[in-house]
């Protein structure tokens, strides 16, 4: 069980540590109780948040409306909800995390 991942009903909740301004967007492993995401978007005018939500929607093969930022609008520490009926094992496989 990962502390940064909660699967409840049809919602997957991720607690993330986001590093904007990286060369490419990718999962960078665990960072304490969070999953670290390197993000290839600048932390300017909400561009990093929009890029993060779009990247997660693409990873989970859901529409952009199915991904919501619950907390951390102006912080590196973010909580995201994804409306997707996936198991914990499926989420770990999609994000390439062991």
TrEMBL record:
Pfam families: DUF167. InterPro entries: DUF167, YggU-like_sf. SMART domains: DUF167. One of its GO terms (cellular component) is cytoplasm. Coiled coil: none annotated. PANTHER family: UPF0235 PROTEIN C15ORF40. Belongs to the UPF0235 family. This is UPF0235 protein DLM_4324. It comes from Aquitalea magnusonii.
């Amino acid at each position: 069980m990962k502390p940064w991942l909660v699967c409840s009903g049809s919602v997957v909740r991720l607690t993330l540590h986001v590093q904007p301004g990286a060369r490419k967007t990718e999962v960078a492993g665990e960072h304490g109780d969070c999953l670290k995401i390197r993000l290839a978007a600048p932390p300017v005018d909400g561009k990093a948040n929009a890029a993060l939500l779009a990247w997660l929607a693409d990873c989970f093969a859901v529409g952009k409306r199915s991904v919501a930022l619950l907390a951390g609008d102006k912080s590196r520490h973010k909580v995201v909800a994804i409306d997707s009926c996936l198991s914990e094992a499926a989420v770990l496989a999609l994000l390439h995390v062991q």
